[in-house]
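Dear H.,

Thanks for agreeing to be a second pair of eyes. The structure we're designing against is below in token form, covering all 380 positions.
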């Protein structure tokens, strides 16, 4: 029996491919974006506490009230925007589910959705599977800043939404206040919606600040703001995130959410709600990962790699043009199989799949692992 696939150009994601290759070749895995260290013991104890107390059945579809309140309080304190806990915040089974749900709730056949390349790999399949048409705008290749003139040229009467990601995976660039002002101008007087992927919101470096789209009164009224507990609390395997959006968008979001997952993990929601009271846990995250970035960069500077600027996330781009003329896919396979360090090639983040002599490494690893990986890469 044959069926018509909704995603004919997609197979297994590059993250799964490279992690499998790392395991098969006993390579250090700097490919997939997850920490190799555990979360806080207190958070584990809180989860266990709520499990023992019997919080093991379905949570409310929109999320437990205590966690929605903690999310609302955090957003208001950091970004100055109040979201109603009953009508504007939804807890999800990870940010990837939230992204899919947001796009599914608004994108119809023939709608155009603008996104910026290099782009995280779930955006385009989410758009296409809903009959939408992805419209690509490339970030400036030198510093991965936004080219708003190009955005203006790409907007049409079919433009339904714009997808943004800051801090940006895979480049580590940040949206600026000037960018927010430009986006306000571009969307003013239109019905264009925004999906803002802010899962690395607490991971910025060198005293730089994350500017959430919720901080713009004008943009917040048309935006799904999506974030992740997994990235913040070193618990990516728990698959927990949330979406904050105005009531009219949340209403549509929840219509889809209830039939995709209905609700997210109950005891973990209660644990996060309690743990979020310790604000320093997430406010200190940038310094924590900045130290790890610097450990890796200190070791890699003596190599032949050219280091791209990294202002946020826990990913670092390396330019290998001075080392090899291989495509990024070939070079990544070579590093994994022959050098013993698994990385992610950048070409899968682009629609044209062209090699740009860049690879992405994840530095959410223990310092010893980072140093060991860097020593292997120094030999090239």
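And this is the sequence the design step returned. I haven't edited it by hand at all.
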């Amino acid at each position: 029996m044959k069926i018509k696939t909704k995603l004919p150009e997609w197979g297994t994601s590059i993250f799964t491919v490279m992690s499998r290759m790392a395991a098969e070749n006993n390579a250090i895995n700097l490919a997939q974006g997850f920490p190799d260290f555990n979360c806080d013991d207190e958070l584990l104890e809180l989860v266990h506490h709520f499990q023992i107390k019997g919080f093991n059945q379905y949570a409310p579809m929109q999320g437990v009230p205590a966690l929605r309140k903690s999310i609302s309080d955090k957003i208001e304190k950091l970004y100055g925007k109040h979201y109603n806990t009953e009508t504007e915040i939804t807890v999800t089974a990870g940010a990837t589910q939230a992204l899919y749900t947001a796009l599914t709730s608004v994108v119809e056949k023939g709608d155009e959705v603008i996104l910026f390349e290099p782009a995280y790999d779930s955006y385009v399949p989410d758009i296409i599977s809903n009959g939408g048409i992805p419209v690509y705008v490339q970030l400036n290749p030198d510093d991965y800043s936004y080219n708003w003139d190009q955005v203006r040229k790409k907007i049409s009467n079919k433009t339904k939404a714009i997808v943004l990601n800051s801090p940006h995976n895979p480049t580590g660039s940040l949206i600026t206040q000037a960018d927010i002002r430009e986006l306000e101008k571009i969307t003013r007087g239109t019905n264009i919606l925004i999906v803002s992927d802010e899962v690395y919101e607490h991971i910025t470096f060198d005293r730089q600040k994350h500017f959430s789209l919720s901080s713009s009164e004008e943009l917040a009224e048309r935006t799904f703001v999506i974030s992740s507990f997994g990235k913040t609390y070193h618990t990516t395997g728990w698959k927990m995130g949330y979406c904050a959006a105005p009531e009219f968008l949340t209403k549509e979001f929840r219509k889809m959410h209830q039939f995709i997952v209905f609700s997210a993990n109950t005891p973990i929601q209660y644990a996060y709600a309690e743990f979020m009271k310790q604000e320093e846990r997430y406010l200190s995250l940038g310094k924590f990962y900045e130290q790890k970035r610097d450990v890796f960069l200190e070791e890699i500077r003596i190599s032949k790699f050219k280091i791209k600027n990294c202002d946020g996330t826990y990913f670092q781009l390396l330019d290998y043009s001075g080392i090899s003329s291989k495509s990024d896919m070939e070079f990544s396979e070579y590093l994994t199989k022959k050098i013993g360090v698994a990385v992610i090639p950048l070409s899968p983040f682009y629609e044209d799949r062209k090699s740009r002599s860049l690879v992405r490494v994840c530095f959410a690893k223990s310092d010893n692992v980072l140093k060991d990986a860097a020593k292997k890469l120094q030999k090239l």
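Two observations from my side: The first strand starts at residue 28 and ends at 29. The longest helix spans residues 285-300.

Warmly,
E.
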